[in-house]
Amino acid sequence: xxxxxxxxxxxxxxxxxxxxxxxxxxxxxxxxxxxxxxxxxxxxxxxxxxxxxxxxxxxxxxxxxxxxxxxxxxxxxxxxxxxxxxxxxxxxxxxxxxxxxxxxxxxxxxxxxxxxxxxxxxxxxxxxxxxxxxxxxxxxxxxxxxxxxxxxxxxxxxxxxxxxxxxxxxxxxxxxxxxxxxxxxxxxxxxxxxxxxxxxxxxxxxxxxxxxxxxxxxxxxxxxxxxxxxxxxxxxxxxxxxxxxxxxxxxxxxxxxxxxxxxxxxxxxxxxxxxxxxxxxxxxxxxxxxxxxxxxxxxxxxxxxxxxxxxxxxxxxxxxxxxxxxxxxxxxxxxxxxxxxxxxxxxxxxxxxxxxxxxxxxxxxxxxxxxxxxxxxxxxxxxxxxxxxxxxxxxxxxxxxxxxxxxxxxxxxxxxxxxxxxxxxxxxxxxxxxxxxxxxxxxxxxxxxxxxxxxxxxxxxxxxxxxxxxxxxxxxxxxxxxxxxxxxxxxxxxxxxxxxxxxxxxxxxxx
Amino acid sequence: xxxxxxxxxxxxxxxxxxxxxxxxxxxxxxxxxxxxxxxxxxxxxxxxxxxxxxxxxxxxxxxxxxxxxxxxxxxxxxxxxxxxxxxxxxxxxxxxxxxxxxxxxxxxxxxxxxxxxxxxxxxxxxxxxxxxxxxxxxxxxxxxxxxxxxxxxxxxxxxxxxxxxxxxxxxxxxxxxxxxxxxxxxxxxxxxxxxxxxxxxxxxxxxxxxxxxxxxxxxxxxxxxxxxxxxxxxxxxxxxxxxxxxxxxxxxxxxxxxxxxxxxxxxxxxxxxxxxxxxxxxxxxxxxxxxxxxxxxxxxxxxxxxxxxxxxxxxxxxxxxxxxxxxxxxxxxxxxxxxxxxxxxxxxxxxxxxxxxxxxxxxxxxxxxxxxxxxxxxxxxxxxxxxxxxxxxxxxxxxxxxxxxxxx
Lengths: 511, 408
Prior knowledge:
The structure holds two protein chains of two kinds.
Chain A: H1 8-11, E1 19-23, H2 33-37, E2 43-46, E3 49-52, H3 61-65, E4 71-75, H4 88-100, E5 105-106, E6 121-123, E7 144-147, E8 154-156, E9 159-161, E10 169-172, E11 176-180, H5 188-201, E12 204-206, E13 223-227, H6 236-239, E14 244-248, E15 259-261, H7 268-274, E16 282-284, H8 294-307, E17 314-319, H9 324-333, E18 338-342, E19 351-352, H10 353-358, H11 363-376, E20 384-388, H12 394-403, E21 407-410, H13 412-418, H14 440-443, H15 448-473, E22 488-490, H16 495-501, E23 504-505
Parallel strand pairs in A: 11-12, 11-21, 12-13, 13-14, 14-17, 17-18, 18-20, 20-21, 22-23
Antiparallel strand pairs in A: 1-4, 2-3, 5-19, 6-22, 7-10, 8-9, 15-16
Chain B: E1 22-23, E2 36-45, E3 51-52, H1 53-61, E4 72-77, E5 87-93, H2 96-106, E6 111-117, E7 132-139, H3 154-168, E8 172-176, E9 181-186, H4 190-196, E10 203-204, E11 206-214, E12 219-220, E13 227-229, E14 232-238, H5 243-252, H6 262-276, H7 281-288, H8 293-296, H9 301-313, E15 323-329, E16 335-340, E17 349-352, E18 358-362, H10 365-369, E19 376-378, E20 386-389, E21 393-396
Parallel strand pairs in B: 1-12
Antiparallel strand pairs in B: 2-11, 2-18, 3-10, 4-9, 4-11, 5-7, 5-8, 6-7, 13-14, 14-15, 15-16, 16-20, 17-18, 17-19, 20-21
Helix pairs in contact in B: 5-6
């Protein structure tokens, strides 16, 4: 029974704060900049002082703008009676749902402290029997191609035949790409920064499913257009002239789930780009309603190839789920030129917490399963495998490559480079850094050129670290690392994981 | 299993004790592959005259510093002029059971025209046990029933049979299976193996050879080089850092890895790219040791396109890490190929006799000079194949542009 007369206000229990900004009043100049910058209104001016107003999310904006360096954000110590089973997190969730009666939403990737399998993997290096390579002195290549590969070259009367028109490929300078983040989930300036960085780095950036703003056509040759279940913004310009087209079936943060951009975020700009009326909710259905089976997917792939005159690679993105290997094999047989596997730690602008935190497969295991299955079926050398979802560092990227990904998809790290502090409030649209918001006063805070520069520097640094590791392994081109699980060892708590991933345990050599 | 504890006092050249387990046809249970440095040497008669086995043994043995007594071997081509059109399957058997197992398996699947014991010395300085070495001359029958009728060509059928034997038939290992060639290898120093098989009794138009300095044991006769499949023979000095990737490509194409070494994979790659995919030898060599994208961008347009597509298509055939290899084949003509990695991290030198009748490739110049003091020698470039064919001469010295003469 839910009595409508019992309003949320009447039924709400006041909960302890999670974070509190503390101000060193000896240093504070009372400039109030922090108050103006706090989009969560967690600070207020009272008497002669700036004080906490509650609701701090630890986005860190106030710290960054304070000219006196006098703010620190403190996590509030546990306020609940200690209990080994009833964690503070579980009790807060229950209290929130008892008040709202709704599905709990959150954003960014799963934040439960699930151990990352990446942390249980160790890399190999060359000693004596093969020489390591100094990437500053000798070439170590990171050029990567994305798209379908022919499997073999035809030879006719001793003449080697190349049919390059059959297999369009995109060349990238490093095995990295930006994941799909739509205009709508992030701001114009944030998406512009990603596209500028992709162009500068000569890699690919996903469009997300929000269409492509006309201002961004200039970056089209570095953009992978996403065709998702809402079909937003799909028009000739969106499909032609871009680098690749990707059908989005699922997202790691919310496998089996669709999307929902609330009407208040559908501004004039968003409405024009998505081609929907202003102020209406942008709903992406859970499945594509023209894809209820694999043969339907094959048809959509054909339609997209036909409409792009076979000049673009057409890929499919799926969330990493338990049967990911067999599904991946189906995607290749359905005609996908590349496939993207998104692990369950992948980010999101908004997702039900129960799905984000509990559904899917860690990307490490998913990559290994896909790589193994495609190899068993003799398909691995036909297709490009992209994978992401919780890639935190160059080490994660390198391990993902060694497990079998050709291209590693990164989104959250790029947003952190722009300013994101992973406070997990994207779904509220109040991002104080101007990234995950459509409010003009907030989006103005992000300078796309500065943000792009920071992303470029991050990725260049990761690519340098990749070269260092390749050189240390005695490998001088990244393709010789992809799927080379011999160069990984598992040191974690569960050897079964090593077995499933086909990675040897530490201590096991070659001979 | 033919496992025997040998002379406990056996040591290597440095006086280090050598592990006493010794395996012949059966794979050692703890075998996970092998690493190490090696010496390789080869010679090919360009005019078709026969070369005595004594010559290759001298070439290999002079490089004794490159071996430690844990494996050496030779492959001879142009060996059976009387039976040139028959496949010669040369086996190691642990014992009579192994021979029975293999013969039982081959019965009805191959037409065996003749078989004989391969001469081996009954006494040797090599630690026992010794395998029974036997050869069968066979033709592939018209009716090839293998897991149902797979409509396999003659050579693919033989590849299937040999891989099945090596993976599944107990106590037997087929060490070579090509026409007009055979492999003589084992667990000992180069001179011990030459002596064990009495190599001077054989003459051929081409010889490959290999001696090992493995960093690991146990010793396994069948795991020594040359590795061979059909008429391919491969001697390899190096450690392929991309083994996991290369192995995937051959397994995707139906090859089963039974020796678990990078050399085995290299052998299958040559078979896949040149015999099955029919790529010209220099094109396949480029895929294995490609130029950098930076250098490819400097090539003329047609060559650049081929180079790019080779790197994209045969990415998994790219042998990364240090290696130098010597590859031989008898079909369609006796061919010697030598190739070093694209940084040339392992040595390879080529030579030609003053009269131009014999070409050589080896790890060290000493190997050439010991048999041909006046030879003209040169160093093939990194990633650039040397190719010589009996009856045609040296087709590539390993210093030419990548695709010279290739039709595109």
